[in-house]
């Protein structure tokens, strides 16, 4: 089923714009494509609308800072939020990494030159188009295991085949109708469609909480300055 068949035409029909056999113009479909991509961007930005995680392994090179993105030093889709991380050493031993906000990372990391087998803490600035990922100590090798929320991919054309997670088709149909209604003369947005738009959004947010729950961040106790002395000689 294509984007036009599964979402856009049903949205126009719910507004009464195609019920009498009217064919939508090319420009009107273009407006609908822009509107549905704006909905996807909004859903990704709010995060609790995306209830699935991406699990991946990224090669570490010994750097203390990496960039995340298709053209980054860690080549992957830029995440909306990193939910969990671990460093896996060459001998397959692993250690969870505490994910800190920038303020706590800046306060906790006393020595930015530390290297070691594992990273104790990390921070991400979520910059666009490349996010910067900071690790301390900097693992000398191995892999970074990431569990993250990735943005929903935009559509390129009306002929794109739908491959959306469960629940998104009805969300997009009803919310697209709400978004398009003011732009089309004669459009009739019913109370049922408006209510469905709200309920499907709430349903996805509920599914997010049930599926992913609250992020778990390993406890992190910053080392004292005295502890840093032996760590500098090698971990």
Describe the structure.
The protein is an alpha/beta fold and 235 residues long. The protein folds into 2 domains: 3-49 and 155-212; 54-150, no CATH class. It contains 6 helices and 11 strands. The chain has helices spanning 3-14, 26-46, 102-108, 168-180, 191-212, 225-232; strands at residues 54-59, 65-69, 74-75, 81-88, 94-96, 98-99, 115-116, 121-124, 131-136, 138-139, 143-149. The strands form 3 sheets. A 5-stranded mixed sheet has the order 3-2-9-8-6, with no helix packed on it. The protein has a 4-stranded antiparallel sheet with strand order 1-11-4-5, with no helix packed on it. Helix 1 (3-14) packs across helix 4 (168-180), helix 2 (26-46) crosses helix 4 and helix 4 runs antiparallel to helix 5 (191-212). It is elongated. Residues 224-235 have low confidence and may be disordered.
């Amino acid at each position: 089923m294509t984007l036009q068949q599964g979402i856009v035409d049903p949205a126009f029909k719910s507004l009464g714009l195609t019920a009498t056999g009217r064919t939508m113009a090319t420009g009107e479909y273009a407006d609908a494509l822009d509107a549905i991509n704006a909905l996807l961007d909004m859903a990704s930005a709010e995060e609790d609308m995306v209830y699935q995680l991406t699990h991946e392994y990224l090669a570490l090179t010994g750097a203390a800072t990496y960039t995340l993105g298709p053209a980054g030093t860690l080549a992957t889709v830029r995440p909306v939020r990193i939910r969990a991380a671990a460093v896996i050493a060459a001998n397959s031993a692993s250690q969870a990494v505490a994910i800190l906000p920038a303020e706590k990372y800046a306060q906790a990391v006393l020595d930015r030159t530390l290297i070691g087998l594992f990273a104790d803490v990390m921070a991400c600035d979520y910059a666009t188009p490349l996010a910067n990922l900071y690790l301390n100590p900097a693992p000398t090798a191995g892999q970074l295991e990431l569990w993250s929320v990735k943005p929903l991919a935009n559509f390129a054309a009306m002929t794109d085949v739908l491959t959306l997670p469960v629940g998104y088709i009805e969300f997009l149909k009803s919310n697209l109708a709400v978004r398009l209604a003011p732009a089309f003369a004669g459009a009739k947005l019913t109370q049922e469609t408006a209510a469905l738009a709200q309920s499907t959004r709430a349903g996805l947010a509920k599914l997010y909480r049930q599926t992913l729950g609250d992020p778990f961040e390993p406890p992190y106790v910053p080392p004292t300055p005295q502890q840093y002395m032996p760590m500098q000689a090698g971990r």
